[in-house]
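BUG: 3D viewer hangs when loading the predicted structure for this chain

Environment: internal workstation, default settings.
Expected: structure renders.
Actual: progress bar stalls at 90%.

Input used:
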Amino acid sequence: MHTKLKSQIRLIRWMIRRVRLLEIRKRTCQVSVIEISYTYRCIYKQITDNSIEMKIYYTIILMFLFQTAMGQTMSDSIVFHGKIVNDGILYNIGFILRIKNNPKFGSPIVGLDSSEFFVQCVRGDTLVLKTMASPYSYSVEFVAKDTIQQNIHVWGFPNSCKEWYFEQKYKTISLPIKYGINRSDLVGIYKHRKKKSYNDFYVTYDATIKLKSDSTFEFMEIRDEWDIIGVTYHTGKWEIKRDTIICRTVPELYPPIVQERYPGQVLHFYGGGWEDEKQKAIEKGIVYKFLIQKKGLIYKDRKDRDIYRKVKQSVTTKDSI
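Structure tokens produced before the viewer hung:
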């Protein structure tokens, strides 16, 4: 028998023994996430590394083996193929994958080595990707309908915070106030970044304020202290008084913590999200004041008087403000 064929047969036998062992250990709660993930990767490697005929063959084996491990029948079982699409996360960390309302299913970690993942489930199951991402923890729920690859979008901020240039390069422009202050010239995105030293460690700040043409604003400041991420988010209304922009929080304008940004994909922010900031706005009424100068907006309420410089944006971005 051909040497390559022999090795493939031995691999198939190993897969069968491996899945049977996982099934036994799963019942006694002795199987780990790493072991399950390793077995998936081994089989997936065979699918991607071989010819078209062998890809089909190994895919069938994958479906058969894992439906056996999960105790599912061929008629209602599918191998769901997902791809994680990063719409804006500060740090690339893994996601805990689980099947909602199926306690028998483990919790493999996906998204670390590859954006693609496979999971054996029942057609129509609700799958959940959960993460402790920064600055907000969240999960994405979606339905496994078929075996065609589906893009699952992940986004760690309120939906309106797109193109805020977190951890990205950007260019800034001066404010045209030589002949007076024009409200339309102030509409846009302003950025402030700084890194301060405290003895033997650093604290970094990445702050953004967005002044919109409908007189609303959004403010977000992300702080990194000893790898501990803190975040402040507020929204409300802005106005001009002489040479100062005054931003007052409005609790009713804070976005919901459950959002459906893409059809069939529901985003849940948990652990409070920005609800704590909203509560502060209800109790105190938070106000930001910025002095308007040619070089940018000067934060008046801080000792450092931070400068928020206006970002030079594309036409596409301007239209969304």
